[in-house]
Amino acid sequence: MLLALVAAHLVLACALPAVAARxxxxxxxxxxxxxxxxxxxxxxxxxxxxxGAAVEENLAxxxxxxxxxxxxxxxxxxxxxxxxxxxxxxxLAYSAFYFGRRSPDASRTSALLLFFAGAMLGLVVADDLLTxxxxxxxxxxxxFLLVGQSGLHRANRRAAVQALLVTVFGGLSMLLGxxxxxxxxGTYRISAIVASPPTGGAVTAGIVLILLGVLTKSAQxxxxxxxxAAMAAPTPVSGYLHAASMVKAGVFxxxxxxxxxxxxxxxxxxxxxxxxxxxxxxxxxxLGATDLKRLLAFGxxxxxxxxxxxFAVGGRLAAVAGAALLLAHGLFKATLFLVVGTVDKVTxxxxxxxxxxxxxxxxxxxxxxxxxxxxxxxxPPLLGFVAKEAAFEAFLLEGGLRGGVVEVGLVAGSVxxxxxxxxxxxxxxxxxxxxxxxxxxxxxxxxxVPLWITSLAGLVxxxxxxxxxxxxEAYGDTLPARTAEEAGYHLALWHGFNLALGLSAVAxxxxxxxxxxxxxxxxxxRRLHHRVSAQRGYxxxxxxxxxxxxxxxxxxxxxxxxxxxxxxxxxxxxxxGIGLVLGWAWPGDVPVVHEWIQIPLGIVVVAxxxxxxxxxxxxxxxxLVGAVGYGIGGLFIVDGxxxxxxxxxxxxxxxxxxxxxxxxxxxAHFTERRRPRRAIQVRKGVLAAVAGITxxxxxIVLSGARTAPATASExxxxxxxxxxxxxxxxxxxxxxxxxxxxxxxxxLLVAASGTASLVLATRHDRRRRGKVRASGSGTPAxxxxxxx
Amino acid sequence: MSAEDTRVPWPxxxxxxxxxxxxxxxPVTSERTLLLELAARILFPAVLVFSLYLLLVGHxxxxxxxxxxxxxGLAFVLRHIAGGSSEGAEIGARIRVRPPVVxxxxxxxxxxxxxxxxxxxxxxxxxxxxxxxxxxxxxxxxVSSLALxxxxxxxxxxxxxxxxxxxxxxxxxxxxDAESEAAS
Amino acid sequence: MTTVSLAxxxxxxxxxxxxxxxxxxxxxxxxxxxxxxxxxxxxxxxxLTGGPPARPPILGGSAEGSAPLADPLPQALALTAVVIxxxxxxxxxxxxxxxxxxxxxxxxxxxxxxxxxxRRRTPTASMGEEADEQGDEVGVDPGSAAASGDPVGxxx
Lengths: 788, 184, 156
Prior knowledge:
The complex is a heterotrimer of chains A (788), B (184) and C (156).
Chain A: H1 2-22, H2 24-50, E1 55-62, E2 67-73, H3 75-98, H4 106-125, H5 129-148, H6 154-185, H7 190-195, H8 201-217, H9 226-229, H10 235-244, H11 248-261, H12 265-288, H13 292-312, H14 316-347, H15 358-361, H16 363-377, H17 383-398, H18 400-429, H19 445-463, H20 465-476, H21 484-488, H22 499-516, H23 518-528, H24 534-556, H25 561-582, H26 598-614, H27 618-639, H28 642-663, H29 678-704, H30 714-719, H31 728-736, H32 738-769, H33 781-787
Antiparallel strand pairs in A: 1-2
Helix pairs in contact in A: 1-2, 1-4, 2-3, 2-4, 3-4, 3-10, 3-14, 3-19, 3-20, 4-5, 5-6, 6-8, 8-11, 8-12, 10-14, 11-13, 12-13, 12-18, 12-23, 13-14, 13-18, 14-16, 14-17, 14-19, 14-20, 16-18, 16-19, 17-18, 17-19, 17-22, 18-22, 19-20, 25-29, 26-27, 27-28, 31-32
Chain B: H1 3-6, H2 34-57, H3 65-83, H4 99-119, E1 129-134, E2 138-143, H5 146-183
Chain C: H1 6-23, H2 28-49, H3 72-103, H4 112-119, H5 145-148
């Protein structure tokens, strides 16, 4: 069922454009049904799953390679399905009213959103590292296409490429990490790896590589800039992919693997440090944003850092808090994005400076936003507060250096969170002095009802905390609790007056204080920004890579055939040559010569070959190559290969004839239009000589590696009479290896056709041009350009 | 006309004035030499027969389809040079067979030879021996793989003829065209 | 057990060296001759590895059993190689001839496009464009609701 649901998403996505051609609203509506069904099914399975019976399915993908699609529905997957399918259904329904009926983007967006929902569903239920990787990259691609939109806008293209480059770079290194971990563990099943985590150097390297994937996907510093840039996508897309679900993939993977690796420092240390840094940077940058959507994007970055810290440390309570916050964040951030979409839709702007008096004009929208923002700020009785209380409590209980540092960081981050939550509400709805109040167009129910659903869900889950607690604690219980107190903690709205509540109050007060000085803070964030920023770093890296590519291409691909060949030759000399020298094994029994007749024949061959180098006339060179060929034929006879020698003599003669045919029309001397410089010729000579000598030495050394005397291929000799032949060569050619012969004569046919085409094409050209042109007089324009 | 004009130019002092020495029906061309024409007249049939001998003897001694084909090809090369004709690439002027057809026939023979065993349920390219009794000459043992050799022979002859057509006559014609243009 | 004698190794080395040298030249005819010489060298090396000089691999006859038989397999392979080298030679010849007819010489030219790239210092377009750079593009913010609404022209 689970696999079928995933497949249904992908299949229906392909069919959606056909529906959208008739009605875009119907397309989005239809797309929303499937995630809703998934959510209902997951809810139906929830009691059994939370009772400890995870739903498992698998489908053989490439059995020979042990590749299977393994899926598993457990508590963590359930939490994620609420976000992926629940929030997904809401946002798809909202999109039906957000996109215009004739909008050219609607058709593509509906299909891609549903495709993404399917890929994301596959990702969260995957129980196999490679299955997870496949879906992981599918979500990256969906994100690229959704951010890029029609590709007509520069901002879309730039943001899409940035998102793709960053996340796919991370994804690829993660794949390497998966392979290292999977091979060390002997299995790619996540549940099996978590049950008995592998150890060793390869695993450590694998963890670091996996973390790269996690950090890029979840937009952690210093990879975070792609997320604010991705706000170039339509607002529902941003709300779904870049707030509620896709960016959670990194956090989700940390949550998945924490039970296995949280005890090792290379796992939690980078995550905690970067997570805290991201939480602070994101919160700080959100205070400077003037665009509501960018504000939320930086807020998302900040919250992702928070989540990362909670899941990375691998304690029970921190994980419970993390799961609760995961749920809370998905709900309130989706609400806020939809609010921004509606505000944008009815007023035509998202700029804080241009919006004024909207709260009075649209009190309902303001109320829904206030609920969501309060959940974000951690104000009771909302789910965000419940989660944040648990988080504070977790690190208070942990204590020690790590607990202390993280606690301070979280409180500081929460102060910023409260401040930007307040800034959002103020920016969107407050009546600002000196700004004309906006007069919003009437909003259709379709633009407000969905966001009320998610907003109220946050309130209800906060008030009835035990419902969320069941889900969150079912996941948290897979992690060890350090103390009895931690083990006994349950998510609840009210834990009495304790230090955690005090910290929440501190965060609230600090945040509101920061908000009162918003103008100075915003100015400060802008002043501190720019010179050194992660975005600048990304641009430098990409443009640096491009320059390097141009430089390398320019150096390596110079377009000169001799240079390429020389490079190949150098490699031939260098790589096997070094091996030859290092493993020097000169055979002791190298005979000077086997038969004395070989000496004069050899001298003829060598002399003719060397003379070719000096030959200035073409005809001389051709005659010399003929001499070489006949000399070789002689050597074949001496070697006891009359068949070979016969063929050699005949071929050599024919080749000479062919050469002479062509030479009739070519100039008598070799024509070099630019005389090659002597130094270059000498260099070529040295290179060729060294390469030739290398080959000769190889011949001796390798033939010396024989362990038995050279004997005839005995099977051929033994079986030859059966073919009715006494000439074993003939038996090999037409019988034992007859297929080779058929292939060979095919090559001859191809070569002859090629030759005929090349020569006769000349004549054909002339006939077509209608007039006879002196051959050798043509000089195409490109030729002039090359020779300057 | 002066006396000098009636004299034969020195490169043509041995040009035959009769047609009978030309092999087959080769059209007469300007550049003819007695020596080559005589040699071609005498050698051509002999070399062809020798090439057939090489083809047949291949199973028992040096030779085979490759060598036989090349030798036959050389015979045609000799004829081409002696005839000097732009149309000299055909096998005998009477039987006008285009070289690519010969090449194709050769490959077809080889491929059919390869496939025929499959029709009898044997693996592709397997061979068998057949004993034939020829009156007067006695028992002969013929190997089916000889057909493959024949295919190779035909193909190589075809390839050489095709070369004569392209590199030989083709280039010659180009040269003539260029000359006539230079003259005009 | 060495099958390649010193003298033959020298011949092979000389053939390869000359072949490589000719291959590195600009004249297509020299390159072609280089290929032919390399082919000779390779065939000789192939044949030499089969073993020292021995009786031709033909059964029967008077010398039966008196001397070792030469290895037939390298010979058969070399024979195939010889014929294929010939086919390639004719093809390259035609190529050189055509080059001469078309451009008036048979020289190997440098690739023009490659040279252009080599002359360039920086890429013409970059994927890492700066964020603030909006270029000459004006119009709606692509992420706004207006961009996702109905096309402006249809609204009436």
